[in-house]
Amino acid sequence: MKKTLVLFAHPYFEHSTTNVRLLECYEGMDNVTLRDLYEDYPDFHIQPFRERKRIVEYERIIFHFPIIWFGLPPLLKLWIDEVFDMRWISENGLNILSGKDAIIITSVGGRENNYSLEGKYKSQAEDLLTGLKISLDVNNIDLKKIHIIYNADNLNDAELDRHCEELSQILKTE
After folding, report:
1. Distance (Å, whole) CA 41 – CA 46
2. pTM of the predicted protein model
3. CA nearest to 115, candidates 105, 126, 106, 104
4. Which of 91-110 are b and which e, b meaning 16 or more Cβ less than 10 Å from the residue's Cβ?
5. Which of 162, 167, 174 has its CA nearest to residue 34?
6. Is 168 strand, coil or helix?
7. Could you report the average pLDDT of every consecutive run of 10 residues in the chain (174 residues)?
8. CA distances (Å), 139 to each of 76, 94, 96, 100, 154, in order?
9. CA neighbor of 151 nearest in space, from 135, 137, 162, 138
10. Reduced to 3 states, what is the DSSP secondary structure of residue 7?
């Protein structure tokens, strides 16, 4: 398995049974390091140099978060703004992030049929990730997979087990 950094960002983590369960899936996995951005930066004072130094050591970055009010959690958006600095990327004409890959694991509270052009929100959930997808592309990071968990507020134990197994398979195969 590739050396993987999981960047987890959930401002209301204590209220999320789905994400609590999914984080347990990372435990005991070889070459996986979990970082909780809300735990690391409760004051929202990102340390870009430290973060840049950290991500260089990994082959894969997993962005794991809930979609909040149709977008990224505020701290994850700030992390992207601070860490993916264009001047840093182009130092000496090199992009040291080239060749890394990424996976997006995200959850939404609504049902899948709400996230369609005909549905309640008139938009697909993946469309709400456009800024992150472009940020990865600009940095030559290969987005391998987007895994969206719908109806996250209402999943039972069997459904959570299934999602955990899917997450394990994604990490093993991608």
Report:
1. 6
2. 0.92
3. 126
4. eeeebebeebbbbbbbbbeb
5. 167
6. helix
7. 92 80 86 94 94 91 93 95 74 74 93 89 90 91 94 90 88 73
8. 16, 10, 9, 9, 36
9. 162
10. strand
